[in-house]
Amino acid sequence: MASTERASAARPEPGRYGALLILLIASYLVSALINRHWIEAVQVALFTVAVLLALRSASIPRRAVRLVVIAAVAGLPVMFFLSFSTLTGNVGSGIADLWTALVLLAAAIMIVRRVLAFGTVTLQSIYGALSAYLVLGFMFAAAFAAIYHFSGDKFFLPGEPATTQTFQYFSYTTLTTLGYGDFTAAANDGRAVAVLEALTGQVFLATLVARLVAAFRSTGDRQG
């Protein structure tokens, strides 16, 4: 009995990813349904909150937590300035999008690292994996937007609008390999990142999510 208790204590407790999952879904719906310029600022703020929620459940040293919190909070007004200032132009917007992509990448790594460290598979584990999957879609959308701004407002084929909504739509259809074909990257850099996203999505679903769901079912069967 004592050895079992010690083993259970040694296992990391599952994080809380339900709120993060709801926040990410709400962020996508808000940006998809509201076509306003200021929605980008709202989404950047929501992404910052998402990183803080992911950080809450991450098993990293407190000093590293403080550094990430300071960087996320301090970087928020800087990103607003770069995104909406006429002084910085496309370069500033590209830097802001690139920063957003890197922040989301850090969030995805923290979530996946924590999920893989769980001693047992719980519903929170699955919430965490789904949250990481959504974060990846947002991350690649920000990367596409950065390419767009650094390339002089060119990404899709002529006649296809490049907005926050279309970048996210293109990102998630690529991540899930649906490939509707109504939006297509015109240059090699955009195509290369799109292929990388498609491969990432397939590996993520085929390994992490499928493994967690199967383990969760097995745990439920044993308990039953």
In a few lines, what is going on in this structure?
With 224 residues, the chain is mainly α. The chain is 76% helix and 0% strand. The protein is globular, with a radius of gyration of 19 Å.
Determine the structural class based on helices, strands and strand pairing. mainly alpha
Q: Overall pLDDT, averaged?
A: 81
Name the poorly predicted regions: 1-12
Helix content: over 70%
- Which value, in Å, is the CA radius of gyration? 19 Å
Q: Termini distance?
A: 22 Å
Shape: globular
Q: How many E-type strands?
A: 0
Number of folding domains?
1
**Which band does the percent of strand residues land in?**
under 5%
Q: With helices defined by DSSP (H or I, 4 residues minimum), what is the helix count?
A: 8
Largest sheet: none
The secondary-structure element order is HHHHHHHH
Describe the protein in words.
The protein has one domain. Mean pLDDT is 81; it is low at 1-12. The chain has helices at residues 2-10, 18-33, 39-56, 62-84, 89-116, 123-150, 164-175, 188-223. The chain starts with a helix and ends with a helix. It is mainly alpha-helical and 224 residues long. It is globular and about 50 Å long. The protein contains eight helices and no strands.
